[in-house]
Amino acid sequence: MIRVENITKRFGNYPALHGIDLEIQPGEFIALLGPSGSGKTTLLRIIAGLEFQDEGHVHFNGDDVSDIPVGKRNVGFVFQQYALFRHMTVADNIAFGLTVRKASRRPAKAEIKARAQELLRVVQLEGLGDRYPGQLSGGQRQRVALARALAIEPSLLLLDEPFGALDAKVRKDLRRWLRDLHKQMGLTSIFVTHDQEEALELADRVVVMDHGRIDQIGTPEQVYMEPATAFVSHFVGETNRLPDGRHIRPHDFEIAAHGRDRVLVDNVFRKGGSWRVEGRLEEDGTIIEIDVDAHEAPPAIGDTVTIAARRERTFSNPGD
Ligand SMILES: Nc1ncnc2c1ncn2[C@@H]1O[C@H](COP(=O)(O)OP(=O)(O)OP(=O)(O)O)[C@@H](O)[C@H]1O
């Protein structure tokens, strides 16, 4: 179990994290989700032992590891800035964490080799061990980075935007594959992303961060359906903010005669499985987005329609 307790971190005068508390159970897959600069990477680096907090503690399985450096925490990490070693073969890259161990803890050469081969199988790159990173695709390289992180049999796997630089299709395939691998290997993993779709699809629980604070910790369903703050409701999924403070999801609107708001339709297009209707409130021009079921006929551009909310939320601090 990982317990992060009241972590505070400043860079000079800049407060990057304010009193972060977080508990992670063995086997969980956790997403740290938030906009750029919200402190996700800083928190991940503190958990890894690559960065140290000003205040607070990190516990692994009940042990206080707050002052223990990265090399002794037994964490595997895939961070973009720790790219593969270009002059080493794929197999040597994977074996790296084992070969640099002190002699007393280093497995025999043959064993290291066998382990690298086994990991190549795990990440589905069998037969590519003799290649150099430059001879692989971006997605393959990320899988090698993952195999390298797994070689030390980490108790915790940390991933910082692991698929950030890849195209959408490869990203999606790798996501699914990572989710399976996490389960198969019984890992506890934390990954950083600013992509809400990635967080909702992969994580058992999502930690939504903003300005160095945690706004909400919950299952994907909870953060989407029951956002704790106005910020979460905007950042996770889409939300219309009405002039009177109501926050309403596009799919929670219906076009209905009994509705109280009138909308002038500016645009109608297909979005996934529904029609997306974009328009403006007649009252004050507020931009409104509405999803209409794909099986229904959408309004036409230029129409004025009346809308009603099936579900709405009001937050005490709507300006977030
Ligand atoms: N070494 C550093 N020195 C000074 N400021 C830093 C340092 N590292 C991070 N910061 C600042 O701390 C804040 C949090 O940074 P962090 O990298 O944790 O955010 P993030 O949520 O991971 O953002 P991104 O998604 O852009 O990577 C930012 O404002 C950043 O500029």
Structural commentary:
With 320 residues, the protein is α+β, with helices and mostly antiparallel strands. It has a 6-stranded mixed β-sheet with strand order 6-7-8-3-9-10, with helices on both faces. Strands 13-17-14-15-16 form a 5-stranded antiparallel β-sheet, with no helix packed on it. A 4-stranded antiparallel β-sheet has the order 2-1-4-5, covered by helices on one side. α2 crosses α3, α2 runs parallel beside α4 and α3 packs across α4. The longest helix is centred in the middle third of the chain and has 17 residues. The mean pLDDT is 92. Adenosine-5'-triphosphate binds next to β2 and α1.
In short:
This protein has two domains: 2-230, 3-Layer(aba) Sandwich (Rossmann fold); 244-314, OB fold (Dihydrolipoamide Acetyltransferase, E2P) (Beta Barrel), CATH 2.40.50.
SS class: alpha+beta
Oligomeric status: single chain
Q: Tell me the number of strands.
A: 18
* String of helices and strands: EEEHEEEHHHEHEHEEHHEEEEEEEE
Question: What is the count of structural domains?
Answer: 2
Low-confidence stretches: none
CATH superfamily of the largest domain: P-loop containing nucleotide triphosphate hydrolases
Largest sheet: 6 strands, mixed
State the shape. elongated
Instruction: Output the CATH topology of the largest domain.
Output: Rossmann fold
Domain ABC transporter: 2-236
Protein name: ABC transporter
Organism: Novosphingobium lindaniclasticum LE124
GO biological process, one term: quaternary ammonium group transport
Search tags:
alpha+beta; Rossmann fold; 6-stranded mixed sheet; 5-stranded antiparallel sheet; 26% helix; elongated; binds adenosine-5'-triphosphate
